[in-house]
Give the backbone structure.
Amino acid sequence: MADLVVRGDTEDIAIEEGKIVAIGPDLPGAVAEIDARGLHVFPGLIDVHLHFNEPGRTEWEGAATGSRALAAGGGTLFFDMPLNSTPCTVNAEAFDRKRAALAESSITDFALWGGLIPGNVPEMAELADRGVVGFKAFLCDSGLPEFPRADDQTLLDGLREAARLELPVAVHAESQELTQGDRSSVKAFLASRPAIAELEAIQRATLLAREAGAKLHIVHVSTGRGVALAAEARAQGVDVSIETCPHYLFFTEDDVERLGAIAKCAPPLRNAVEQDALWTHLLAGSVDIVASDHSPAPPGMKSGDFAQAWGGIAGVQSTLPVLLDRGHHCRKLSLERIGALLSGEPARRFRISGKGRIAVGMEADLALVDVFRSVQLRPEHLLQRHRLNNPYLGSTFRGCVMRTIRRGETIFASGEITTRSGGKFVRPNLCNI
Ligand SMILES: [Zn+2]
């Protein structure tokens, strides 16, 4: 007898020891049963881009609160960026400290990005041994002095080393030189990070990746033109994957004027024309992955003077609601494609075996979603550390996560976290290409 059977409208899913053992209509009874009729079952979300800032800056978020918020949004696995923890994940010792800290505090499974900064190329092999999913580099200032941007030589050397290690390099694609304008007001800030800064950096990164024969992942592409440029490079043979974030699909630059520092991020939110183009490319299939880039900070760093405020949007819980409301209901984006953008492609691109699909033999990571349930987001729904630091508050979404199951165990249901057990460390399976 199975441990658990999830009863759906047309098919049931049977689970034993955390894995899916059968899928089909009218499966036999199990020790426990969950009624998912009327709900859509997605594979658990894999958020490939977020910042829980642990260890060292847990007062900004931390994996204890962050992973609970992820679970409330249907997530079962995250990839933590190498910053803004202290130390940044740029060598094996820092990796070990972060892995130990997340093993203590995360309720979802987790994987780690390594960093690529000037001087640490010799550390990359050891980071790969430890199990990083890839290496993150900034082409402009990161905002943290301890994580300097990769100059072109560092990026090229890092791409070559990553190619040897069979791992991707992820780039924050904005030109340093083209993002130096006045930032003293909201309008000036938006103008100081123009679309061309993104385009120039994408072009340079794809050129260097081609030269190095490396896999490239472009994080948080904010414009349709950026997606088109990267897709063009892919058509010419560059191994590049394209990520965007829910905030670029939901907010525009007018919202930055309205919301202030809570909606400040880099690249910045764009105008409605750029946003429409981004949706067009996403609907056409050119975007591979949508990730939250959840990057919170304490309230004091997100209020007051806009110019001084920390850049980063805290929205880890809202990725699926944004894609359901603005994508599925408003633009006919299929539920299957949403599952691919949020789970299937992340697992495939970063070679996370056993996750990303609902199939026999896979780990039972599931998000049970009422696609039609309309909810206005209120502070009490949010499980992130600083609940008022969230630009989506007050927005209404059609689409609500009812239950999240991580390896067969319900970790979130009816608005509450229901587990005391922790997540496990996950590494890419480099043997299984
Ligand atoms: Zn980020």
